[in-house]
Amino acid sequence: MSNYTLLEKIIAIGLTRSPRLKYRLKYIYQKLNYFIFKKKYSYKLNYDLKELDKSAYETFFGYYDKSPENKSGTFIVYHRTNQDTSLPTSPSDYIEIVIKSLITNSERVVDRSYSYNWQQGCRTMWISDSEIVYNMYCIEKDDYFARVYCIDNNSYRDLPCAISDCYENQFAICIDYDRFRKYALDYCYQNRRGPENKNSIKSNEILRLCLKTGNKEILLSIDDLKNFKPNLTMVNAFHTINHIMINSSGDKSIFIHRWYSSSGRRYDRLITFDLVTRLLDAPDEIIGVSHCFWRNDNIIDGYLNVSGKWGYYSIDCRSGTVTMLFEKLKLLGDGHLNYGSKYVIDSYPDRSRMKSLYLFDLENDELQIVGQFLEPLKFYGISRCDLHPRWNLKKNKIYIDSTHTGIRKFYSINF
Known about the structure:
By secondary structure, the protein is mainly beta. The chain has helices spanning 6-14, 19-37, 222-226, and strands at 43-45, 48-51, 58-60, 75-81, 95-101, 107-113, 125-126, 131-138, 143-150, 155-159, 163-167, 171-174, 205-210, 216-221, 238-246, 252-260, 266-274, 280-281, 286-294, 299-306, 309-316, 322-324, 337-339, 343-346, 354-361, 366-374, 390-391, 397-402, 409-414. The protein has a five-stranded antiparallel beta sheet with strand order 1-26-25-24-23, with no helix packed on it. It has a four-stranded antiparallel beta sheet with strand order 2-29-28-27, with no helix packed on it. The chain has a four-stranded antiparallel beta sheet with strand order 3-4-5-6, with no helix packed on it. The two termini are 29 Å apart. The relative contact order is 0.15.
């Protein structure tokens, strides 16, 4: 039996009240389990696995909500580094942003960024078929900014804020990555040295940035969230906003409002934010949030705690109803999900440190295991390497990051 039991999961949830103790005990317990249940293989897969950069560099794309492939399927973008990615990131080291042709297999290093993390890279994403955007750090101004690169004319242009998510090449939503330093090092940037820059995003604001002009406006603030359906746990807590995702029409977004008590205990809720009316919503029955994804313009799917029960649920933004996606998925536990012709869902490491990759057919209620991948123990905590599966737009290929060979590498799985 390689999966953790319900009792073990309940104990882990209970230890959330003591996050530092939980971190230490969890590592010791996982190490013990790994040596007992260790597999004789590093990965199993029912399809072809292709390593996309065979150099000695460690390579990865980042988060699960964006495809590394452009719309026409002619290029991919990813990050690479000569660092040991099992170690924490360093502000004195950089990662390269690489664009590779899927037609000729030629590569070009388009830039270097010093503002990044192992979970999301420097938040590189396609904003058109020929343009990418990514986050950078300016040492002279001691501040973060975004840069747009165009393949067609090999041109660059800079924007005044670091982006979190973009709607095509029209606008971005921006947050302050420094704010994660206190409780979420796996998502922060660690470059800024001085006090808050007057020209940067204030740590309590979310901005909308025009990708054409660079103009920016305040969308809402941390104080707005504190005053929206407040409760006692929010008093004297440290608040953050993370995992902003814009729907395919650009009129709605979701994000996780997360706050931490003085002891470090974490609370969170899922916020839906209408970018047209500026109205907020947060279904009261959702009392815990892990990972979400827009299935379409109005339906959000995610691994949520609804009225005390964790599982995969769907939220209809039009009616506000929350329903169990399918009972069968409860057995999978927490994971990252991405929707194409089917759901692709990954898992966290089990007792043997194997992570599973699944396909789920929503219409036929069919669950298929695609493969398993080892995550060595040295990849733990902020240096972990989640599979973060992502469909390409043609829905015939899945991209993943994996460490089953002992280093972080970027792969595709062809169907």
